[in-house]
Amino acid sequence: MMLGSNSKAMLTRCQIQVGRQHNTAMHKVPANRERQNAVCNVRRPQSIDAGVLQKIRLTLTKQETAYQNSQADEVFSSLWAHSSRVSRIALTIARAEGCEEVPALLAGLMHDLGKFAYGSYHTDDTPEEKNAVRFAEDILTGTVYEKWIPAVREAILSCYLEGQATTKIGRVLYDADCIDKLGTMGVAQFFAKRALRRQFLDDDLLIRASIELTYAYHSPDTLKTATGRALARLRSVRTRRYFTELLEEWNWLGLGEFNIVEEAIGGIVCVLVVPCACPCGGRLTFESDIQDAVKCRSVVMKYLCTTCGTEKTYSFCLPNVKGLPRKR
């Protein structure tokens, strides 16, 4: 797909989608023609001298970095907050599905124990789920919950390592983890998680919202329980609506030009946040592929500016949808 000379039809199609999303909005938005003009105008070069802009940026980032480094002893608890929520969502789903409640709670609490095992993140080919199971066994051994170790182990491994939630608790855990990342709550977590990774609200972050939109698109069909699918249907709509409205504000205020485009990559529909042009105003070319990652099939998107030569690559794991090519 070529963005630039061939983008007109694509942008028109996307604009129709955006308008339809806003039929139920609670506030007024600009008229269609005004909004389309705001969206589709190619961004002009910055009016401020590039050298001055660079000095401003470096000054701001230097001061903020110095402050952040002074907070080195701060304790990070985002995984605990996520795991606590997942455990309670898992309990809700387990009750509705008639499953054992205690192992659902435990699996939700411990499913991410291996995420940053020993202070590292994916430094080798060891799936984080294997480390999660090791930690879980150490924690539960010798406690009143020891009898649930096999159920917790099987749930975590079947849910993630094998790509298939093959046990009842595994299906509950899979759905609970997905539900926590959907809807208004999921959007809030997307921004919080990116901030922890020192990624803030800018063009790059908006492009990375493609993962949230793609997962939301497929969630009603990929979740494993009837309760999970019912919960996902409403939250999927909320996710799409939020990012649609965010991009309309972004475009209308002259901060950039982006559109939401549904693109089939390797036969799998991906919902992408696509820039209309490079920040320099140049035309962009777009390449995509599906590649193997440690524990998933990953979509890789590459943007290249034909004017300034800037090249950027983005990737994310695809949901386990029907028709997804197997790992090589």
From TrEMBL:
Database matches in SMART domains: HDc
UniProt xrefs under SUPFAM superfamilies: HD-domain/PDEase-like
Positions of the HD/PDEase domain: 75-191
InterPro entries named among the record's database cross-references: HD/PDEase_dom, HDOD
Signal sequence, start to end: none
A Pfam family reported for this protein in Swiss-Prot or TrEMBL: HDOD
Protein name: HD/PDEase domain-containing protein
Source organism (scientific name): Desulfosarcina ovata subsp. ovata
